[in-house]
Design brief:
elongated, about 140 residues, single chain, 3 domains, mainly alpha
């Protein structure tokens, strides 16, 4: 399980100031459920660099941000407006396009939505929830 940045910093302090090893950190903080092997993988990096930051340029390159792909995803998101049953979550769009940087485009499209459509959805929310209960959590697209 990956550590949150704050957890990495905490482990770094324990290592540098108290000299604790992976087993000691794991046993002292059992409630965190940190795998000893994960802590053990992090400690050499702390010892070598004195940091828990990622190296500049490490990780997968973000070369997928082309104007063509941005337009494609924006069209996928915004084309759903007024078409019941065709909506896709950001995760589904990510699967279709293979892109993982949708947050900004989703936000941009969301901000461009007509407020009347948002208000209409909010007004229908209670009826939609009742419909979900009525069909025991099944599909409700045909009911609206």
């Amino acid at each position: 399980m990956p550590f949150a940045f704050e957890e990495k910093c905490f482990i770094k302090v324990l290592r540098q100031e108290k000299g604790w090893g992976a087993k000691r950190i794991g046993s002292e903080f059992r409630q965190k459920k940190w795998a000893v092997s994960s802590v053990n993988d992090l400690l050499p990096k702390i010892d070598k660099t004195g940091s828990v930051e990622r190296k500049v340029g490490s990780g997968r390159p973000r070369s997928i941000r082309t104007q063509r792909n941005i337009s494609y995803v924006s069209d996928l998101i915004c084309s759903q407006e007024g078409n019941p049953g065709t909506s896709k979550s950001p995760h589904e769009i990510q699967k279709v396009t293979g892109m993982d940087d949708l947050k900004d485009r989703v936000r941009t499209c969301w901000e461009s939505l007509d407020q009347q459509i948002i208000n209409k959805s909010i007004d229908q929310w209670r009826d939609r929830l009742k419909a979900v209960v009525r069909v025991n959590g099944g599909h409700t697209e045909q009911l609206f």
